[in-house]
From TrEMBL:
Stored Pfam families: MmgE_PrpD_C, MmgE_PrpD_N
All residue ranges annotated as the MmgE/PrpD N-terminal domain in the record: 30-263
SUPFAM superfamilies: 2-methylcitrate dehydratase PrpD (SSF103378)
A GO molecular-function descriptor: lyase activity
Domain of life: Bacteria
The protein's name in its UniProt record: 2-methylcitrate dehydratase
Domain MmgE/PrpD C-terminal: from-to ranges: 285-470
Organism: Streptomyces nodosus
Region (Disordered): 322-341
Family assignment from sequence similarity: Belongs to the PrpD family.
Amino acid sequence: MIEHRVRVHPSADRLPREDQLAWKLAAVATGTEELDVDSAAMAVNRVVDNASVAVASLLRRPVAVARAQATAHPAGGPGATVFGTRTRVSPEWAAWANGTAVRELDFHDTYLAADYSHPGDNIPPLLAVAQHTGRTGADLLRGIVAAYEIHVALVKGICLHEHRIDHVAHLSAATACGLGALLRLPTGTVYQAVQQAVHTTTATRQSRKGEISSWKAYAPAFAGKAAIEAVDRAMRGETSPSPVYEGEDGFLAWMLDGPEADYTVLLPGPGEPRRAILDTYTKEHSAEYQAQAIIDLARRMREKTGPLDRVRSVVLHTSHHTHHVIGSGANDPQKYDPTASRETLDHSVPYIFAVALQDGTWHHERSYAPERARRPETVDLWRKITTVEDPEWTRRYHDPDADRRAFGGRAVITLDDGTVIEDELAVADAHPAGARPFDRPAYARKFRTLTEGIVAPAEQDRFLASAEHLAELGSADLDGLFPAVDTGAVAARPSTAWWPAPPPPR
């Protein structure tokens, strides 16, 4: 790996474009050729994972709204498919609808380092453009692996959240790079697209604070849509704010560490394999990633606690991020509100621990149902749970050795007679270093479970076979990456949305 120093430069420096981070990212993307076998296999897993959660979210209102918006923009050419339909729309609108569907349940992959990310958010815009431009499965794989490489590098090297900038700013750059690899664009074109994408998708983290709204699902879809539009403009010869990262009025100087900003971003050198996707991990449970191990811990501890009405208090000792973002350290009263939105509850580790401790399981719908959140005994237990930052868990969260990195915590449960029950879990069971690391059969089981009753068994088989042979798919075969949905079965199910589309506004 090559260390690239990224710092602010005055305009008078006329920083050569080859020395700018956007160029170096573009060069890695356009230099992505023969793929590492393991990386390509993991990319297939993530295509399956995305389809699983996208289909499972089709009834959710934000997804139905995004789908309705997208289908109002029919393709003027080949177009791209929208999950849950056979409608072809323009690729940027397919990215919008599908990106929202993938993100809605907070149930796909993650990477955590200096910043946070869901690298699977790159896949919907890449798949949309691959369909629209007649690319092959091999082209799509190349784009996915390149996008993950860039996304992981940025998340390792540049922290956004400490400046309350939403993590989709890194996503848009990665997607632009992935599109460049997919389409085999010149480095100069991708360089311009990266800068446009970053410039237009920098936003605050209020989308993940307080009363969290449906925009949490839309934000990465917006970034994907913006990246497609940026690549389109760059391909037509348009230029960008430059240097977007290093400029004296640019991203680092005014959004991040200021004029003295100085970061190091590690990128593969020429000929090095692109293996960053292997550092990422998916979710077994539909919740914020730092809650994955906490759910598994609660399930393990429930056998030791006895009747939960005897619990006096629960303290979760955990990392800075878990305490301040999804724990009581956020100082968000909404995290203890039984009428809070689903988006807020999946960012409340006290709620999540309470429900997992009571139920011994976690479900992407039932665990968040309004009647579940308002159950009196749940509210009583929930409000006894607090988090504290433990410096050792924070250190483990940021351990440079991925094999030692920890995203869990230690739970201390005190009963009404003073008995103390303690246990800890470093990583989720499904993490690569966990008790049951996710493998290809696990991804297939997740797909079958989440699409049961929505996608017929024979269609499940057909989709999984298509994904399994992604590298061999021709351009016409990419349609097979969209499972056909039984719309009649979907329409008969209880819904949190309108199917097939919301009514027009009054």
